[in-house]
């Protein structure tokens, strides 16, 4: 007895066949002959595509998930650290910041 191996079709191929069937330009038999599949299979793929088509538009496109590295606590701590560094630079005797202030005041 000869065993026939089942054909496995990619999702892209199935979608192509189903879209062709939905267009309605050709008959199911013509599409099946063109793509080398059984007409019943064309009809099943067409029904499956039509059934799942509404799910494509149900996906929410709202705000993206919040990045945990941008949490308010982390940002406030970063602001505090930078403020402390700035205050230290303002008080440091040889800092570039103090020299720039001195230049601005002399002009």
Overall strand count: 0
Task: Tell me, briefly, the overall form.
Answer: rod-shaped
Biggest sheet descriptor: none
User: How would you name the oligomeric state of the polypeptide chains in this document?
Assistant: single chain
- Amount of helix: 55-70%
Q: What is the domain total for the residues?
A: 2
**Strand/helix succession:** HHHHH
Please mark out the parts with pLDDT under 50 across 5 or more consecutive residues, or reply none. none
**What is the first-to-last residue Cα distance?**
102 Å
Task: Compute the number of helices.
Answer: 5
Give the amount of beta strand, in percent. under 5%
Mean pLDDT over the full residue set: 84
Using only CA atoms, what is the Rg? 34 Å
Structural class: mainly alpha
List the helices and strands and how they pair.
Blueprint: H1 11-23, H2 28-35, H3 39-56, H4 72-91, H5 96-106
Please describe the structure with a list of short key phrases separated by commas or semicolons:
5 helices; mainly alpha; 107 residues; 2 domains
Descriptive overview:
The chain is mainly alpha-helical and 107 residues long. The chain folds into two domains: 44 residues; 36 residues, no CATH class. It contains five helices and no strands. The chain is rod-shaped, with a radius of gyration of 34 Å.
């Amino acid at each position: 007895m000869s065993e026939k191996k089942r054909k496995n079709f990619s999702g892209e191929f199935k979608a192509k066949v189903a879209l062709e069937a939905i267009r309605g330009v050709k008959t199911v038999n013509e599409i099946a002959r063109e793509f080398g599949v059984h007409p019943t299979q064309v009809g099943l793929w067409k029904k499956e595509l039509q059934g799942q088509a509404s799910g494509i538009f149900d996906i929410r496109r709202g705000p993206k998930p919040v990045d945990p590295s941008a949490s308010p606590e982390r940002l406030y701590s970063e602001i505090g650290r930078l403020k402390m560094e700035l205050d230290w630079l303002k008080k440091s005797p040889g800092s570039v910041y103090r020299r720039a202030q001195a230049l601005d005041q002399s002009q």
